[in-house]
Amino acid sequence: MGSEDRLRRDPIEVAIDNWSARGWSAAAQGMAVVTSVMRVQQLLLRQVEAVLRPLGLTFARYEVLMLLGFSRTGALPVGKVGERLQVHPASVTNAVDRLERDGFVERVPNPRDGRSVLASITPEGREVAARASSALNQVVFSEVRLTGDEQASLYGLLKQLRRAFGDFG
User: Fold this and answer.
1) Which domain holds residue 65?
2) Do 66 and 50 share a structural domain?
3) Is the dihedral of CA 65, 68, 73, 75 positive or negative?
4) What's the CATH code of the domain at 136?
5) Is residue 22 located within the same domain as residue 82?
6) What confidence tens digit (pLDDT) does each residue in 90-113 have?
């Protein structure tokens, strides 16, 4: 959205006014927080996808590659990938399937448990993950448009909210 397309007034502020006018003042700030978080997620995802798309990745597949790359052996049980990324097993299976088709991951028998399979990052997967990380660091992660203190404050608030929802201990 170019500067000529920008709205004159924040639509979420308009929504706050509308919420209050309907007698929902007690919930207006909560609605504004939820709506703002959802909108920021859309904006950030659009940036992330623009960086990852030319590399044949989505953010979900990138996260799988990074998790595997950070693991001690470069391989984890598929179920453990879902657990650590906090995503549904079907989503992990789909991501691993696509990464395997692209040559970035291979499924290998688990040497500790013959019944399970490990997702293992390939050299090609490490290379594309490194290129993606470099691009994301440069274009997205270093350009959040908040000061370091603001980023730390926002992260702390979001962490507090995630904990309150039972996302982690």
Assistant:
1) 57-142
2) no
3) negative
4) 1.10.10.10
5) no
6) 999 999 999 999 999 999 999 888
pLDDT of residue 112: 87
Structure tokens at 169: 């201990």
Q: Identify whether residues 50 and 62 lie together within a single domain.
A: no
Overall domain count for the chain: 2
Work out the pLDDT band at 2, boundaries 50, 70, 90: low
| Edge-to-edge strand list for the sheet holding 105-109 | 75-77, 117-121, 105-109
Q: Please check whether residue 63 lies inside any domain of the structure.
A: yes
The model's pLDDT over 46-88, given as tens digits with 9 standing for 90+, comes to 999 999 999 999 999 999 999 999 999 999 999 999 999 999 9
